[in-house]
Design goal:
Elements lengths: L4 E9 L5 E10 L3 E6 L6 H8 L7 E6 L3 E4 L12 H7 L9 H10 L15 H14 L4 E5 L7 H14 L11 E5 L11 E6 L2 E2 L5 H9 L9
Parallel strand pairs: 3-7, 3-8, 5-6, 6-7
Antiparallel strand pairs: 1-2, 1-4, 8-9
Helix pairs in contact: 2-4, 3-4, 4-5
Bound molecules: adenosine-5'-diphosphate and magnesium ion.
Length: 228
Amino acid sequence: MKAILEVERVSYRWPNNKAALINCSLQIPKPGLWMLVGGNGSGKSTLLRLLSGLLEPKEGEIRLASIAALVFQNPDHQLLLPCCGSELCFHLPIGIAPQAELIEAALDQVGLAGFSNRPIHSLSGGQKQRLAIASALLSGAELLLLDEPTALLDPESQGAVLALIRQLCKQTATQPKPLTALWVTHKLEELHHCDGALRLEQGSAGPWLTGASMASALEGLPRGRAGG
Ligand SMILES: Nc1ncnc2c1ncn2[C@@H]1O[C@H](COP(=O)(O)OP(=O)(O)O)[C@@H](O)[C@H]1O
Ligand SMILES: [Mg+2]
């Protein structure tokens, strides 16, 4: 398999028979920051739940070349333990000893160096979101699924989280194995930072466009249809 992620003709109905995805196909060809847009109820969150294994497709196939980790819109819905270090230990794969250096390195990677003993309740929203990203990194996932990760953050923290993911997904001399991120957004300005964007409409995915083309295609649409 060449693509990091392949979704082939996936359909999903909720138990109330509501169709959330209908014959949905898409591929993520290579590492980078990829964005997903679509109006309210178009199936974005359902797709991310299917990709992360929280739901199983009723029809079709999902092929992943790596573990996928989900980052929620609200970090309070996923951070479980009292302090940063214990939260990160909890996400280590089974069999990996929770060494302090591993935890420190993950905190450092997301700009939270020295935060190991900090109580989670003392973090800002942006810091909590970066801790959730560090947990995903420690879990060994190479595919991050981010469901509107900046929706609840102030503008400065939004920019910092976007810059962090952008950096983790970029190939550099010090980072030969960049991550892949699939980032759901309602913010047209975020689209300008991605490697490609696709739109979910009535449960199916359109083609990959550049972020700029997607932003201008959505600009004229009423809020809600575009995703805002
Ligand atoms: N837990 C649920 N039970 C029943 N229907 C749901 C549930 N979650 C979402 N849906 C329905 O599935 C469709 C897609 O929802 P969702 O994936 O949340 O869309 P989006 O994230 O794009 O706003 C919507 O019609 C929504 O009402
Ligand atoms: Mg959603």
